[in-house]
């Protein structure tokens, strides 16, 4: 295939400066589809992070003083530029982490729609007058205010979606930002920074530092960072909360999941099987936080579901992410591939029944691929039943009664999303109330489409919300004002 595989030179973006080198050294970026080194990524050291936070702090008074309608205008312009450059942003997203071109195009579209949605909020932030007594001498009201400098930490699986979910509402609310993508995904955000400039967002309002844990830690701990918004795994979230605890800094945590998809006997199997198999195996090679990686299936339809899933998986090709025929992209690194394969081996030792896949495909030895893998009869209490794989692995479990289904679905420490398939509206109502999750999605509905709807977790899937008014108010704090008259 004739595809442009050139990558941009990557920089740290600090105020009005672009730095090709970081004091934290450099990371050699590897293309997951081929294992080839693509080029160096500058890593921000503590002094780069300090400079970025100071640039954001210096830009804050001016950005806050902008009329909200002006902030809305430049954010709308940014959404238009994202749409204009969809092809390039999608190409760079593939080169970032090896996701398929089809998925990368749709993720750019999601970022643009969140951006235009939150642009619409920028001039609609309002407080409330809460008392205006009869003598009219006392006025009490609330006033939402931005925090100041917000530190945003992204993970590598879909950084552009997180840009729409975090960066844009933070800006709409009047904050300035230092954003730290993972060093594993430097390319699409490099292009995004050019669009941010072109849209007319002043220098210093959005700063970007690349790096790993040390860079993230320096950002979280910086005394001028007033709030942290993080997407990543629960283990890192614990470290971030511990760092935040020292200065009692608030944080939003969007973490992992082990989401259940409960299929009752009356489920529309055409939709249920296709959506589930594609979202678990074919979306980012299973590296999605809200994917339904546990399929909890009623005994009456279990055998038919197994048959359909196995047939569907047989047609899912691993391969070049730019090839439209490819469904299964590589996972992000060689280490991730080895970790997933080791988990697959342990699942077999634990007694789960391997129905499909389970290996690295022989014909793609250089890329970081894992075959689409399906396990049946998974023990809900086993490692595979409890722990997020973050790879193309689907687990099937069997239930007899609604109570059993609820118990299985709620049996992990996570609680990001739950999915239900049934034609019975009364059952839907009961399940929505019984499922322990930040969101419940019924008969094919998907969590990622709705920028108007709050998204987030319970349990070790984190706290705080992204999307809707709730997502905007994560970046605002309310000031109470009392005015006493004569
Ligand atoms: P991770 O927690 O290892 O890394 C995420 C980010 O945190 C990276 O940018 C990393 O450099 C940074 N980081 C690492 N240590 C840090 C520290 N001590 N202080 C500050 N920053 C630090 O996550 P991962 O394993 O790369 O990503 C996968 C996880 O992300 C999965 O659990 C997945 O489910 C989750 N995720 C959640 C969502 C969501 O919206 N809920 C979306 C995508 C991914």
From TrEMBL:
Domain Aldehyde dehydrogenase, chain residue ranges per copy: 25-481
Catalysed transformations (reactions): succinate semialdehyde + NADP(+) + H2O = succinate + NADPH + 2 H(+)
EC number: 1.2.1.79
Keyword set, alphabetical order: Oxidoreductase
Xref: SUPFAM superfamilies: ALDH-like
InterPro entries: Ald_DH/histidinol_DH, Ald_DH_C, Ald_DH_CS_GLU, Ald_DH_N, Aldehyde_DH_dom
Keyword hit for Oxidoreductase: yes
GO molecular function: succinate-semialdehyde dehydrogenase (NADP+) activity
Xref: Pfam families: Aldedh
The protein's enzyme class: oxidoreductase
Catalytic site: 254
Family: Belongs to the aldehyde dehydrogenase family.
PANTHER family: ALDEHYDE DEHYDROGENASE-RELATED (PTHR11699)
Protein name: Putative succinate-semialdehyde dehydrogenase [NADP(+)] 2
């Amino acid at each position: 295939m004739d595809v442009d595989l050139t990558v941009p030179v990557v920089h740290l973006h600090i105020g009005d400066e672009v730095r090709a080198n970081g004091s934290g050294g450099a990371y050699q970026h590897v293309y997951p589809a081929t294992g080839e080194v693509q080029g160096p990524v500058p890593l921000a050291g503590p002094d780069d992070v300090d400079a970025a936070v100071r640039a954001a702090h210096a830009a804050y008074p001016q950005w806050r003083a902008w009329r909200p309608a002006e902030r809305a205008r430049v954010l709308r312009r940014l959404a238009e530029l994202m749409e204009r450059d969809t092809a390039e942003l999608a190409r760079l997203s593939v080169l970032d982490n090896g996701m398929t071109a089809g998925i990368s195009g749709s993720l750019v579209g999601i970022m643009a729609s969140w951006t235009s949605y939150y642009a619409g909020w920028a001039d609609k932030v309002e407080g409330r007058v809460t008392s205006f007594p009869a003598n009219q001498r006392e006025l009490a009201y609330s006033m939402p205010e931005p925090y100041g400098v917000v530190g945003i930490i992204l993970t590598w699986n879909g950084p552009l979606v997180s840009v729409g979910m975090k960066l844009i509402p933070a800006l709409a609310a009047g904050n300035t930002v230092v954003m730290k993508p993972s060093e594993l995904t430097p390319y699409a955000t490099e292009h995004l920074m050019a669009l941010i400039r072109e849209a007319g967002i002043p220098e210093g309002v959005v700063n970007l530092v690349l790096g790993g844990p040390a860079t993230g830690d320096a950002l979280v701990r910086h005394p001028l960072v007033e709030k942290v918004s993080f997407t990543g795994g629960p283990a890192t979230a614990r470290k971030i909360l511990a760092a935040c605890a020292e200065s009692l800094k608030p944080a939003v945590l969007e973490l992992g999941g082990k989401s259940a998809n409960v299929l009752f006997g009356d489920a529309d199997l055409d939709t249920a099987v296709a959506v589930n198999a594609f979202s678990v195996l074919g979306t980012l090679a299973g590296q999605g936080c809200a994917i339904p990686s546990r399929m909890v299936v009623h005994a009456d339809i279990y055998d038919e579901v197994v048959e359909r899933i196995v047939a569907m998986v047989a047609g899912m090709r691993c391969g070049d992410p730019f090839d439209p025929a490819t469904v299964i992209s590589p996972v992000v690194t060689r280490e991730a591939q080895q970790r997933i394969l080791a988990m697959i081996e342990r699942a077999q030792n634990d007694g789960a029944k391997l129905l499909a896949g389970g290996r690295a495909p022989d014909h793609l030895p250089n890329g970081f691929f894992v075959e689409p893998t399906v396990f049946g009869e998974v023990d809900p209490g086993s490692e595979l039943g409890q722990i997020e794989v973050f790879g193309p692995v689907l687990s099937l479990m069997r239930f007899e009664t609604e109570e059993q289904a609820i118990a299985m679905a709620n049996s992990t420490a996570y609680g990001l999303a739950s999915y239900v398939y049934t034609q019975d509206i009364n059952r839907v109502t009961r399940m929505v109330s019984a499922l322990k999750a930040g969101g419940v999605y019924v008969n094919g509905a998907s969590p990622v489409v709705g920028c108007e709807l709050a998204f987030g977790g319970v349990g070790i899937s984190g706290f705080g919300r992204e999307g809707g008014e709730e997502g905007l108010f994560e970046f605002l704090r309310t000031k109470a004002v009392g005015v006493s008259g004569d």
